[in-house]
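TA notes. Do not distribute before section.
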Amino acid sequence: MKTFPQEQKTSAAYLDLATNDHGAEKGLLAVRALGRVKHARPRMVEIGPGGGSAVEHLAAQLRESNTTTVDLTLIEAPGVVSQSLLRAIDEFGGAGSCVLTHGLAQDIGSLLSEPVDVISASALMHEVYSYGGGYGGLRAMMRTLPTVLRPGGFFAYRDIYAVDAPSLHERVVQSYGSQSWLLFLRMFARQYLDHGTHPYHHLDDELVADQNSRIVPVGELDIRTCAVITAPVGLFREVQRHYITLRDHVWRSGVLGFRPVLDGQFAADWLDFAAGHKRVHFAFTETDWLSDTQKAMLRAVSEPYADHFAVDGDIFDEATDLALKAFLAAAEQGETDCLATWEAWLAREGRETYAYMTADELLATVATHSVEARCDTVLIPVAGDDILTSPRHYYNRFLTKRLSNPLPDGKQLMLFQNVPLRDTETLMRGLSAIQTLCSKTSLARVHAAIHSRG
């Protein structure tokens, strides 16, 4: 079983292990886009290839079809090297050419010598938002993309699903009764609001927590009492995603006294995929935040499997939630190992904003800002199946069992085409494709942007 080193998210070890999965999903729209490119040898760019799982999937698909040869350029952040990515590059040969270059995503205009047919990226925008200048960095990125895509080219994009709401600032009410979630809120929310890159700065974005009919500061929540919290729906989305990433980070560290298998074949031992119900494979570690009673119980409900154990995922989640509460309490009190693990997670992911736009906002914003590039094109999906949602069934099952009204977890995938403004037929198909997801206000923004360019 592989161990997970506590390093920054740009480290090779993190890219090789923790983020190097879902290659088929990451590459789905890029493969579809290549099938719609008209000439024989397309030029493609992948921004942020990570551990290379999408590169491997693309190569496999191209070899299987045996119809297209692709010249692929990979753009990775300076200083980031992944061994699994280097292997994927070596294995790409039969599908075309593949070169790796280092630079910042927002500088793509200066990194490419000529326009390309397809740009593919996963989680690009929330990375640019969190680390590359907030909304200003996003707008610059959206204005740059049309300049490096050929007319008719494609931008295949995948990121975390935001929320099904008109705006991330819409105020909603959530109740929290789980002690581990209350403890996480007490430790995380103030850190994120004070130090994270996020859009929740207005008076109406204030997080208001109520316990026993009394408003209390979120940093003073009593974990023994249910809390009713009012806040923007996007902020609750951040709490959910950060709790999950912390839980997985702590699991990988082994500090709780066990280490689940979160990568590879054993990570997908499904009992019922659609229901998100799976068997968890794990091994005990020397560090121990499980009590003797809890460890004995976990052994009793698990089965030996080769050099480790396997257990029903629901039982595992229930047992390990108690250990996570003990971990958080110890980190809050300054216990050395737990505090170090908590701070490593904070440094790597705790200040990121994962969901900063609804699907409506993302579609309208990409379209309107792409027109501002003055390339006489607009980035817009042109078919209904260019906009997809991929739910995370396991996480949704976990959240449903712990929160009164959880927000659905998943990925959203969008394939934008760089449509020439003179191509009225394709433009009409694009506007038809987005109208079911976009509000009337957003559709009006897109129409106004397009007509402002004639």
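Switch to the second chain here.
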Amino acid sequence: MMKISWKINSLLLLALMGLPLEGQVTDSVWTLPKCIDYAMQKNISIQQKALTNETNRINANQAKAMRIPSLNAAVSQNFQWSRSFDNANSTYGKYSSSDGTNYSLNSSLRLFNGFKTTNDIKQAELNYQAGNYDVETLKEAISLNVLDAYLQVLYSEEQVKNSEKQIESTSHQLTLSEERLKLGSISRADYLQVNSQLATEKLTLANAQNQLAVNRVSLMQLMELPVSSSFAIEHPDMEISEAFNAEYNADSVYSQALEIKPQIKSAELNKQIAEVNVSIAKSGYSPTLTLNAGLSTGYISGVGMNYDYQVKNKLNPSVGLTLSIPIFQNRQVHSSVAIAKIGTTKASLNETDVKNQLRKSIEQACVNLKSAYVKYQASLEKFNSAQEAYNVAQEKFSLGSLSSVDFLIQKTNLITAESDLLQSKYNLVFSKKILDFYLGKPLTL
């Protein structure tokens, strides 16, 4: 009864966690690219970064519009009251009113300002380009996080399956031990050892199931996907081949990464932006030449001429040039230039730092892949040896020529070796995908 009850509870747990039961068909299976694409669409940080860059695009269009003349229209209406003076009687008469209307059009075009407008446009366009690369950098970071979370779910699922196999095997051994105990061929202590092992493996399964549930939730939350019991991921065939043992030259990978990684492009553009900012600051030393043009007319009541006549005949066009020459500005321009030059130094240092961080990451990734492959091969060899030792021990135990203690030692060794192999396998896969990422290859399994 206890065995049947445990199986029922396991099935319920698997159903609640959304794991596909045998023969069950899921409505939708999430591949790694699908998970990444969904995260790209739903991630709030990416959307905020994209909106920030949309502001940069608007600023770039505004900078270009500064080459176009401005045009403003104005209308004013005035009312006034006055009293006439009677010189004969030395008295003021009654108030009389008059009103007037003025119309004007004014246009202004800056002809020269030390190339500030040109540099403003250049800087705004560079800001927009750098913003695009910043969005791509964030997307790549999210993609790597999704990859890691996806592999964690796959790893946890295999841990659950392995734990279930171990329990099935130990349950069989417990039945065999129970029969031998009834026949008196083993001691009760031997029987209890097997029973204790089964209880330990059930606890291991429970922990594995809990970890799987946690990892599934982490992946869904990273994708901004509401947690659902129907969520299921694809289980790709991840055979470890000699391709995982390929030699990667860190300098070669770094050279390729410099050409494609968005954080490098962004850092380079930010350096150019800082350099343009120096030119913008220096424009404060230059004179400013502005072309002004205007057209005005108006109407005044009480002068004996009608409205149409006055408006048509009072047209006053005007054209003028204004030259503004900076002479002394309290060191404002000098300080602006000095600060802008500091900005170029900081941008240059930041570019160097970003490149150094990329180089260090690639160097570490190359070492990690090589170490992961060596560890995987050692774990595989250890597992094969443990599997052979376990098979021999299982045969001896079935024949009654091996005690339960010795048998369980071999089984524990096999469980440990299998766990180490599984962990080293997924660590190797992740290490390989990190290098593929630096080479610009798509994140797929």
